[in-house]
Amino acid sequence: MSINGDGFQADPEELRGGASDILKCLEPAKGIEFGALNEDFGASEQEDVILDGKFEKFCDTWDVAYLVLGDRSDDAAGKLKTFAHNYEQTDAYVNGRMHPYGAGR
């Protein structure tokens, strides 16, 4: 576990786990296709015409929101993985530089 000079602690494996969890959050929404449902409204009765327009707008909004959330999830997960790597590199450097006086001489 990395301990920063200000006492902040970070476990690289927990950061990687968080990155994985972020990416898993969108899994249930992956592959949802509203297209067929939207087409069904087109063949409906006149009273469904209002719903047709609203559902089409929902479908468009869903598609955009899913893409945006996916991009942001990828970005956030990537940053967490980078932070984990940086903590490990810093720990390795510090552990290699800080040794008891006279050790290794």
Globally, the shape reads rod-shaped
User: How much helical structure, as a percent, in the residues?
Assistant: 55-70%
Biggest sheet: strands, sense, closure?
2 strands, antiparallel
Rg value: 25 Å
Q: In sequence order, what are the helices and strands, one letter per element?
A: EEHHH
- Overall mean pLDDT: 79
Count of distinct strands:
2
Low-confidence stretches: none
Task: Provide a compact summary of the structure.
The chain is mainly alpha-helical and 105 residues long. The protein is built from three helices and two strands; from the N terminus they run ββααα.
Q: Can you describe this structure?
A:
With about 100 residues, this protein is mainly α. Helix content is about 70%, strand content about 5%. The chain has helices at about 10-25, 35-40, 50-95; strands at about 1-5, 10. It has a two-stranded antiparallel ribbon with strand order 1-2. A hairpin with a 5-residue loop joins β1 (about 1-5) and β2 (about 10). α1 runs antiparallel to α3 (about 50-95) and α2 runs antiparallel to α3. The two termini are about 30 Å apart.
Structure keywords:
single chain; 105 residues; mainly alpha; two-stranded antiparallel ribbon; 3 helices; 68% helix
Task: Detail the topology: elements first, then pairings.
Elements: E1 2-3, E2 9-10, H1 12-25, H2 35-42, H3 49-97
Antiparallel strand pairs: 1-2
Helix pairs in contact: 1-3, 2-3
